[in-house]
Amino acid sequence: MGKSLSAADVQRYRRDGYLCPIPVLAPEAAAHYRARLEAAEAAAGGSLPGAYRHKPHLVYTWAQELIREPRILDAVEAVIGPDILAWESVFFIKEPHTEDFISWHQDITYWGLQAEGDVVTAWAALSPSTVQSGCMRVVPGTHRREVVPHADTFAAGNMLSRGQEIAVEVDEAHAVDLVLQPGQMSLHHVKIFHGSHHNRAADRRIGFAVRYLPPHVHQQVGADSATLVRGQDRYGYFEPEPAPASDLAPEAVALHKALRERRTAILMRGAAQPSNAAHTAANPSAM
Q1: What is the mean pLDDT of residues 239-257?
Q2: DSSP character at residue 280
Q3: CA separation (Å) from 120 to 13, 17, 31, 231?
Q4: Pairing outcome for strands 205-213 and 84-94
Q5: Structural domains in the chain?
Q6: Tens digits of per-residue pLDDT, 176-202?
Q7: pTM for this prediction
Q8: Confidence of residue 285 (pLDDT cuts 50, 70, 90)
């Protein structure tokens, strides 16, 4: 275990709010995890149920492996320290030649977490994430701003559950495309302005994002849970999450359902259209 980033890397992350690309998986390992995902999709009838795109590490052993990948954690440790909780994991999947997109937003807006400056997202590519396939775009330096107003749009094709969009002007002229090959990842600060266009490529764009935080961060809205993936939790602010004994083990599925319902209540509080269940089901990527 250790810090894989250089002091200059960490300085760039602090200055710009992101770091990219960071190699974390060998290409064959990325292909292995893509195959595990696609096998789970096939077993579910062609795609993961919307709920399982969130916190899949609670129901799939291979997703549990991914949130604990040492090379991912080494990079995360360099920016938040040796004690690390995985608060959320989520698949962002854009099918080829589809109109799905992610509007400009700041991750932290509806999460309810205190000390948001200590929360980081690791976004690992399991397929090519290119300009053509709709890679993530960020506006460097915007993480130094406060959380700005957002509007709930519930727009068709928006992969965010509320369709949340920054309600102030975004200077896209300064946006940077975070191009990744399978096995590479980016780190981004949860207050940086970011979004992505639709996938115009012939392959799927598959990203696995994990939200990591140090245990001193706490949830300000209600009871919450997280998985300890490195070091110690000396605070106990989050209910510990057990690893699944096997893929889709009944007790793991039941726990996942209970924890997702509790998390969804946090994320959707005060939404402009809280009863829009159809949009939430069609756009499971709530964060």
Answers
A1: 98
A2: H
A3: 10, 10, 25, 17
A4: antiparallel
A5: 7-282 (2.60.120.620)
A6: 999 999 999 999 999 999 889 888 999
A7: 0.91
A8: very low
